[in-house]
Amino acid sequence: MSERKTISAGEGRDVASSHGTDNHSVDAFVADARRLGEAVRQGNSARLVFALDATMSRQPTWDLACALQSEMFAAAAEIGGLAVQLVYFRGFSECKASRWVVDPAALTALMTRISCRSGHTQIGRMLRHVRKEAAVSAVRALVFVGDAAEESLDDLGAAAGELRLLGVKAFMFQEDDNPAAKRAFEEIARLTGGAYARFDSSAPQSLSTLLRAAAVYASGGANALTQLAVKDGNARLLLTAMERNR
Q1: What is the largest CA-CA distance in the chain?
Q2: How far apart are CA 235 and CA 217, in angstroms?
Q3: Three-state DSSP class for 21?
Q4: Residue 41 DSSP symbol
Q5: Residue 44's pLDDT band (cuts 50, 70, 90)
Q6: pLDDT digits over 116-161, tens only?
Q7: What is the pLDDT of residues 186-231, one digit of tens each?
């Protein structure tokens, strides 16, 4: 198996961090942005933050999400398009956000350069980053994929409540059945008016349809998700959850 190249500091910006980057790192990020294509301009497409836990246990699911993420763009393209920002955390203090992209190939190129590392969850930091993005320009949805939550539920709930005020719905997708993660993910979804769902990484079709349904909501709103729910069981699951959390 070929060695995976890890993402450098210049290929994403720190999320709510005091750590700076050197000039070489900044130059590397600018070069990547030019190579991968022009970043999306604000207002051109609906916006969705695609956030993932990249701690060590997540490598198989990271690879799966990388393979499936283009389906989000494809589903949204039929409605009006989608701009996606990748956010991930790993290690003990690293949490980064990419630029906004409208090309799935650009997102794939970024994701394949990231490897998972041991560490703690940083869901609260991720939520606060989404809040800052939404305060600048509307973000319709947050999609988070993870399997653990090691932070204070009160703190996560406070951050989730702020997202609701900004109109951001959180779609919290949990791998496996960790009880603490389930409680946290369900609460974040409830407080934002979003939806929670479990998936099994051994059945990739489940995550695929969940991602597509979230992208359809981000691009076309509740009406588009309602139309998809007529033929898609996971879309119906998300729609039912959102109606319950309204």
Answers
A1: 52
A2: 9
A3: coil
A4: P
A5: low
A6: 999 999 999 999 999 999 999 999 999 999 999 999 999 999 999 9
A7: 999 999 999 999 998 888 899 999 999 999 999 999 999 999 999 9
d(CA 11, CA 14): 10
Cβ-based neighbours of 211, under 8 Å, separated by 6 or more: 65, 68, 69, 71, 72, 143, 173
Burial class of residue 147, CB neighbours in 10 A (0-12, 13-18, 19+) = buried
- How would residue 18 be classed by pLDDT, with cut points 50, 70 and 90? very low
The pLDDT of residue 96: 96
Q: CA separation (Å) from 193 to 1, 138, 173?
A: 42, 16, 14
- Identify residue 112 by its one-letter amino acid code: T
Asked if residues 68 and 33 have their Cβ atoms less than 8 Å apart, the reply is no
CB 68 within 8 A of CB 211: yes
| Overall residue count recorded for the chain in this entry | 246
Q: At what angle do helices 179-192 and 123-136 cross, to 10 degrees?
A: 20
Give every CB contact of residue 38 below 8 A, 6+ residues apart in sequence.
none
Tokens of 216: 């359809």
Nearby residues of 149 by Cβ (< 8 Å), 6 or more positions away: 121, 123, 156, 178, 180, 181, 183, 184, 185
Q: Which of 92, 150, 103 is nearest to 123 (CA)?
A: 150
CB 103 within 8 A of CB 37: yes
55-107 pLDDT tens trace: 977 889 999 999 999 999 999 999 999 999 999 999 999 999 999 999 999 99
